[in-house]
Amino acid sequence: MNQYRNSCLGRVLKISLAIVLISVVLSCNTRPIIVGAPLGLTGLTSAIGVQGRNGMEIAIDEINAAGGVRGSQLELMVQNDGDTAEGGVKADEALIARGAVALVGHMTSLSASRSVAYTTERKIVLISPTASSTDFSGKDDYFFRVIGPNNQQGRTLAAEALGRGYRSAAVVINALNLSYTEAVYHGFKAAFEAGGGKVSEPRQITSQSGFDYDGLLDAILQTEPEMLLCAGSSFDVASLCQASVKKGNPLPTFASMWARTPDLMVFGGRAVEGVILAEGATLSPDNPTELAFLTVYKQRYGEEPTFASIYSYESIHLLALALQNAKKLDGPGIKAAIEALKPFRGLVDLIELDRYGDTARPYSLTEVAGGSFKPLGQVR
Length: 380
Description:
By secondary structure, the chain is α/β, with parallel strands linked by helices. It has two domains: about 35-145 and about 285-350, Rossmann fold (3-Layer(aba) Sandwich); about 150-280 and about 365-380, Response regulator (Rossmann fold), CATH 3.40.50. It is built from 14 helices and 15 strands. Strands 6, 7, 8, 9, 10, 11, 14 and 15 form an eight-stranded mixed sheet that branches. β1, α2 and β2 (about 75-80) form a beta-alpha-beta unit. α2 crosses α12 and α8 (about 215-220) packs across α9 (about 235-245). The longest helix is centred in the N-terminal third of the chain and has 28 residues, at about 1-30. The radius of gyration is 24 Å and the shape is globular.
């Protein structure tokens, strides 16, 4: 009798142990996959970071609702990079230490400037939605992006300026983010001068606050340009436009996509009416998928999504696809999976990455009209 009891007890213990082991295996398999998001969430340029985070959150929720990736849910872990080069590396370090298998973020070329080398050294994939500097182009590293090179922003703006009959241009660039702003300037200069225009040497904005925008504008107006190109933040463009209006000499202003955030109107008010900006991906209400994203975004955040929201949403979906296809969830495995991707459908168009992880997606133009951004063709 005792032998029978012992035998039964032994079987029960074996079954219980098997159940425990199965539970442990299942729990390990269902641990969330951590995606790090280093973003600039403070300061005068934080709007891009906030909008990027919003787009990422929607993408994460969609993917998880559809079953996640490899049977696991994705967990978005956000770290403020302060929109500085030093802050970018610190944010990367913190997220990697907390278990992030890959990073999606750094919304400016400034915050990404040291992170590309840092993450490549550690074989951690970094996908930036909006860091567009040509400094990152044509390199075999762990950096990928879904935005086109920023010198193309300058070329697109130059074509419009020439089409409007302008032949002399003053240029202002933000010196705190030269890897971005200089490329916009060089793209503009090459195209504008090829079309018969003349471009003055760029003047620099050297601080985020307390800068003498009035004095800068005085120096610009002395050269009697027909238009102004500002490769700077929304605060830079707004401050120059306000100074121009105060002096009673509104100067036609063109701006890089960095300034294309709702903060432009917050900082500039009516002074920024008529500003023409480079524009990235835009949503069409005629496309059901794009309309669905637009509707969810507005309901959730109470505002229109921007290029930062769209590109961030697409970046998360790009990473999820790579995670699903990767042979192993480590840096080299994820990198190889991204490089093996064929052109895939983003939210608004096809995205094709070259062998260096760059894309040649084009830019369009938008204009501030009636206190909002409108596609240029709809303004005329």
